[in-house]
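User: Some background: our group keeps a shared notebook of sequences we're curious about, and every so often someone picks one and asks for a predicted structure to add to the entry. Today it's my turn. The entry only has the sequence so far, pasted here. Could you supply the structure so I can complete it?
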Amino acid sequence: MKKQLLLVCVVGVLLTTLGCLKAPEDNVLKKGGTPIVKLGQETITSEQLQEELAKLPPNIKAMFAGKDGLKRLVDEVKKREVLYLEAKKVGLDKDPEFTKKIAEFKKINLINTLLQKNVQNANVTVTPEEAKKYYDDNQKEFVMPEQVRAVHILVKTENEAKDLYDKLKKGGDFAAAAKSMSLDTSNADKGGDLGFFSRGQMEPSFDDAVFKLKKGELSTPVKTSFGYHIIKVVDTKESKTTEFESVKQMIIQYLTGEKQKKAFDTYYSSIEKNYSVNVDTKALEDFVSKQTTAPPAPGAVPPPGHGANAPAPPPPAGAPHK
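Assistant: Of course. Here's the predicted structure to add to the notebook entry:
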């Protein structure tokens, strides 16, 4: 049963793939090679089948290996051509929506071809020396900030926090207390573990308190917008600079992208001046104004916190993040 289901899925994928590999308006079947299938006045030849096979991605091409696979290829191409002929017969090639898609297809592919010839094929390379210079000139980008790993227990009132602090100082079980008392349900079952974080990721009062603590040290009650916290630092990571070799390829990719963008900008500037391009700023402002003030379409649900009268979404329970 599973094998049959897989075969059905593969056939559907292959039919779609073979269809996508063909230009939408093209039904000129190759006349070279040995005729294999006749479809009215059209013929599917061995030459066309070889071209179809060559176009396929390796993972799909493997499914057509051997005698049975090649026969299946013929069957898929045959199905595609019959479906194409039927679509033309019922007039779908004249359908306005279809002709619009064809126009869009041509436009996008012409643009892509233009850019491939004039921008992407440009000699854009980044040397290891250029990458090292960028690394040396931008050291701050590769500094891993100081981090702490902390656990916390969130309670509602200051008195609760003070009582909890006293119990923990006397040897109380922090993890058990977090599980039974903490209002931060996102990590209570994990002993209040917040994982590693750096400065600026938590509320200021939480940040100030936790980065003053030493490993294993317990804080006095800390107030945030969520309530009162008892915090304990369980691990720390000192600030360090990432080694060049670890980020070398990432820098090369980034600089390559920057060079490609520059090549595009230069090319575009060189051709735009050949056309009379004028932007009506007033019409543009009117368009932008109407689009940004227009009411949502019927049934559209704006994301939380958006819209003129939408209230801000409540913060997640107990999380001290900004």
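Suggested note for the entry: Confidence is low (pLDDT under 50) at residues 1-11, 13-30, 299-322. The first strand starts at residue 35 and ends at 39.
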